[in-house]
Amino acid sequence: MKLLVTTTIQASLETVWHFWTTPNHIMQWNNASEDWHTPNAENDLKIGGRFKYTMASKDGLLCFDLEGKYTNIDYLSAIDYVLDDGRKVEIRFEETIDGVLLTESFEPEDENPITLQQQGWQAILDNFTKYTNLNHN
Question: Which residues, by range, are in coiled-coil regions (predicted)?
Answer without folding.
Answer: none
